[in-house]
Design brief:
- The chain has 8 helices and 19 strands.
- With 348 residues, it is an alpha+beta fold.
- The strands form 3 sheets. An 8-stranded antiparallel sheet has the order 4-3-2-1-5-6-7-8. Strands 9, 10, 13, 14, 15 and 18 form a 6-stranded antiparallel sheet that branches. The protein has a 5-stranded mixed sheet with strand order 12-11-16-17-19.
- Strand 6 and strand 7 form a beta hairpin.
- It is elongated.
- It starts with 28 loop residues before the first strand and ends with a strand.
- The structure holds 2-acetamido-2-deoxy-beta-D-glucopyranose (4 copies).
Length: 348
C-alpha cells in the first residue's frame, strides 16, 4: 500500500525570516500534540491532550468539554493566527470524527473494549529552516501505525489485523492525507515560527544552576561525595568531578543521575562520586551551563570539616571574579591558547 514517491522539496524559509536562529548550533524546535483516548465501551470515549513546544506546555484539551486551554497569553496570540486558528475552531469536529472512526475500526476488527488509543503528531523545525512533520498512532501502549508523509501512506508497526486494517483505511483516505500533509508541514512550521516570535522571552529563558556538595558515609571505609545541581533551565548541562583539578573520567565510582524536571519548569540532577575517606586528594564539582556563558561553577568539597555532611557549599557567582576570568579568557583566546577554557573557572 505504501508506494514510493520522490522526496518532497524541503521548505526554505530563511529568506522570509532574516535574523532568526543566527546561531548555527541552535537546537531544533519540536512541536508536538500528545493525545490519549480511553474507549470504555461503544458509547463512551474520554479524550485528553497536551501540546508542547520543546519542554514548554502550550495548551491542554479539557476532557470534560473538549475546550482548549492555552497556557500562555503569547501562545494564545500565536494560536489564533493563520491555520492554527482554523484548526482550533475545527478541533471538536476533528475529535468527533476521530472517536467515530475508532469505534468503527473496533467493530470491523471485532475487537473488545476497553481500548486506549494514543496519537502523537507534530513537526520538527531545524535551525537551517527545513522541517518535517510526523504522526503516529498507538494502541494499548504499543505502536500501531505511522504516517509516512514523503510516501503518502500509513505504515503498520505491528503484524496484526488491526494495524493492517487501520493503515490501509487511513492510506485510502486521500483527502485526509492531503490535509495532514499540509497541516504537519506548512501549517505546523508557521505555527512554530509564530510561537517562537511571540514567546521569545519564555522560550529563551535561562535560569542558572545552584550546586550543593555534601558527603554521605554508607560505611566506615566509604565516602560518597554528592553534587546536587538544581534550578537550571534550559535542560542541557554538564556536571563533572575534579580530583586535584583534573576531571574524573567515567568509571565505576562515578554515578550521575538523569536530568529530572522540577515543578517550576527548571531541572535538577545529581552526581555521586565514591572515594576513600581521607585519601589526601581535593575534590570539586564543576558545572557548565548556557546561563553561565563561558564560565564554570566550581563547588569544592570541604574535606577538612569535622563532621560528615557539613561540607555544604552553595556557590555564588561573583561578578568581579567573572569579569577578571572573562578578561583572562579573552587574552588567552587572542593568544590562540586552546587550554584557556580551564582558566575561566573560578572558586567561590
Ligand atoms: C459506558 O462507559 C461509561 C463510562 O465508564 C458508563 O458511564 C456507561 O454506563 C457505559 N455504557 C454502556 C452502554 O455500557
Ligand atoms: C470546560 O470545562 C472547564 C472545567 O472542567 C471550565 O473551566 C471551562 O470553562 C469549560 N469550557 C467551556 C467552553 O465550557
Ligand atoms: C537541515 O538540518 C537537518 C538536521 O541537522 C539535516 O538533516 C538537513 O539535511 C538539513 N537540510 C539542509 C538543506 O541543509
Ligand atoms: C547509580 O545510582 C542509582 C541510583 O542511586 C543506582 O540505582 C545505580 O545502581 C547506580 N549505578 C552505579 C553504576 O553505581
Amino acid at each position: 500500500m505504501c508506494t514510493m514517491q520522490p522526496p518532497r522539496l524541503l521548505l526554505f524559509l530563511s529568506l522570509l525570516l532574516p535574523g532568526m536562529w543566527a546561531d548555527p548550533e541552535a537546537e531544533p524546535q519540536v512541536w508536538q500534540l500528545l493525545q490519549t483516548s480511553v474507549f470504555t465501551n461503544i458509547s463512551s470515549a474520554e479524550v485528553s491532550g497536551v501540546a508542547f513546544l520543546g519542554d514548554i506546555p502550550i495548551f491542554a484539551l479539557d476532557p470534560a468539554n473538549w475546550s482548549i486551554h492555552i497556557h500562555w497569553p503569547w501562545a494564545a496570540q500565536a494560536t489564533d493566527e493563520g491555520d492554527a486558528g482554523k484548526v482550533k475552531s475545527y478541533s471538536k469536529h476533528y475529535l468527533r470524527s476521530m472517536v467515530r472512526y475508532v469505534h468503527d475500526m473496533v467493530r470491523q476488527a471485532k475487537m473488545n473494549y476497553p481500548l486506549v488509543v494514543q496519537i502523537r503528531a507534530g513537526c520538527v523545525l531545524y535551525p537551517n529552516m527545513t522541517s518535517w512533520g510526523f504522526m503516529d498512532v498507538g494502541e494499548g501502549g504499543r505502536d500501531l501505525t505511522v504516517l509516512k508523509i514523503d510516501r503518502q501512506c500509513w505504515e503498520p508497526q505491528q503484524p496484526t489485523l488491526l494495524a493492517e486494517m487501520v493503515s490501509k483505511s487511513l492510506t485510502s483516505k486521500k483527502s485526509t492525507m492531503g490535509l495532514l500533509d499540509h497541516l504537519l508541514t506548512i501549517s505546523c512550521q508557521s505555527y512554530v515560527l509564530a510561537l517562537c516570535r511571540y514567546g521569545k522571552a519564555t522560550l529563551e529563558r535561562q535560569e542558572p544552576p545552584v550546586a550543593t556538595v555534601f558527603a554521605r558515609t554508607p560505611g566506615p571505609a566509604q565516602l560518597l561525595l554528592v553534587c546536587h545541581v538544581t534550578g537550571f533551565y534550559p535542560r542541557p548541562i554538564s556536571v563533572a568531578w575534579l580530583r586535584d583539578g583534573r576531571e574524573v573520567p567515567p568509571g565505576p565510582g562515578l554515578n550521575t543521575s538523569a536530568v529530572l524536571p522540577n515543578a517550576d519548569l527548571t531541572y535538577q540532577l545529581r552526581s555521586v562520586l565514591a572515594v576513600a575517606p581521607r585519601d589526601g586528594h581535593s575534590y570539586a564539582c564543576r558545572v557548565r551551563h548556557r546561563s553561565l556563558g563561558t564560565r564554570s561553577l566550581l563547588v569544592p568539597w570541604e574535606n577538612h570539616s569535622a563532621a560528615p555532611g557539613v561540607g555544604i557549599a552553595i556557590a555564588v557567582l561573583l561578578l568581579a571574579a567573572a569579569a577578571s576570568a572573562g578578561g583572562v579568557w579573552w587574552w588567552k583566546r587572542r593568544k590562540g591558547d586552546e587550554a584557556a577554557w580551564e582558566n575561566q573557572e573560578f572558586l567561590m
